[in-house]
Amino acid sequence: MNITITKNYSELSVKAAELFYKKIKAKPSIHLGLATGKTPLGMYEILRKKMKTDGLPTDKLKVFNLDEYVGLSKNSSKSFYTYMKKQLYEPLGLKERQYYIPNGEAKDLEKECLRYEQMIDQFGIDLQLLGVGRNGHIGFNEPGTPFDSLTHVVKLKESTRKVNASFFGDESLVPTRAITMGIQSILKAKEIVVIASGEEKARALYEFVHGKMTEEWPITALKNHSNVTVICDQKSARFLK
Ligand code: F6R
Predict the structure, then answer these.
(1) How far apart are CA 161 and CA 143, in angstroms?
(2) Looking at ligand 1, which atom is closest to the CA of residue 197?
(3) Nearest atom, ligand 1, residue 80 CA
(4) How far is it, in rounded angstroms, from Cα 181 to Cα 112?
(5) pTM above 0.95, yes or no
(6) Residue 115 resides in a domain
(7) Is the ipTM of this complex over 0.95?
(8) Which residues have any ligand 1 atom within 6 Å of their CB?
(9) What is the radius of gyration, based on Cα positions, of the chain?
(10) How remote is the CA of residue 142 from the centroid of ligand 1, in Å?
(11) Which family is annotated (predicted)?
(12) 174 within some domain
């Protein structure tokens, strides 16, 4: 595991954007696995600006998302699809055939999970970006999720719905379920980059780096992966030394 500790969130965003920029430049047909949430916002802004300024080709790129809420219209301003459309799909001029995200409006959710997992297997993810929840969740894989889980429907924990309420204005508006890539699906990526910022992520990072592998801390599943980079700020790294 390779760990970079940055002074603050801005520096974290620059470092993470640089890493993704280099990988995309080296392999324009790269398959990226991406996350939503607050942490990647800074790096996405830097990445899309730099790619545009430098005229990096994007027509061969494919991006896959970790998760999507169930029961929210794809075009809702709160869907992860809309988040991604604003952050990267549109600014990078990606065509529909270049981006993939679970369909939270599917009539048959089990079938949708199967379809998404098969697609991950068919294309393969080269580089997966992950944020981490304060309880150690990755994707929407909450504590207790089996490490061999594939793409599945989850009932969101109250604590996660509380945190995500900032995007919805009110907790009661946060959907109760989501489709998420499972832990095993995430581990299939060739390379994984975890980004974390702020004191509230410090315990999860500590468990990841120094704790034992346990399903109570989903992020510890990554200990089994051979190519993981962590980019975190000083606040989230406070228990690491
Ligand atoms: C987002 C996702 C989540 C977030 C995590 C951290 O697609 O799957 O696991 O990465 O909840 O969220 P932030 O970055 O908002 O702290």
Answers:
(1) 14
(2) 16
(3) 7
(4) 11
(5) yes
(6) yes
(7) yes
(8) 35-39, 66-67, 131-133, 137-140
(9) 17
(10) 11
(11) Belongs to the glucosamine/galactosamine-6-phosphate isomerase family. NagB subfamily.
(12) yes
- Residue 238 domain-assigned (yes or no): no
**What residue numbers bound the domain in which 190 lies?**
2-233
134 CA to centre of ligand 1 in angstroms = 9
Which of 130, 134, 156 to mutate for ligand 1's pocket (most ligand atoms within 8 Å of CB)? 130
| Nearest atom within ligand 1 for CA of residue 141 | 9
Is residue 189 within 8 A of residue 227, CB to CB? The reply is no
CA 133 to ligand 1 centroid distance, Å? 6
Residue 241, domain member (yes or no): no
Number of compact structural domains in the chain: 1
Provide the 10 A C-beta neighbour count for residue 210.
9
Which helix (H) or strand (E) segment holds residue 206: the answer is: helix 202-210
Q: Just list the catalytic residues.
A: 67, 135, 137, 142
Q: How many residues does the chain have?
A: 241
What CATH number has the domain bearing residue 78?
A: 3.40.50.1360
Mutate to test the pocket of ligand 1, among 130, 132, 135, 161 (most ligand atoms within 8 A of CB): 132
131 Cα to the center of ligand 1, angstroms: 5
pLDDT string in tens for the chain (241-residue length): 999 999 999 999 999 999 999 999 999 999 999 999 999 999 999 999 999 999 999 999 999 999 999 999 999 999 999 999 999 999 999 999 999 999 999 999 999 999 999 999 999 999 999 999 999 999 999 999 999 999 999 999 888 888 888 888 888 999 999 999 999 999 999 999 999 999 999 999 999 999 999 999 999 999 989 999 999 999 999 999 7
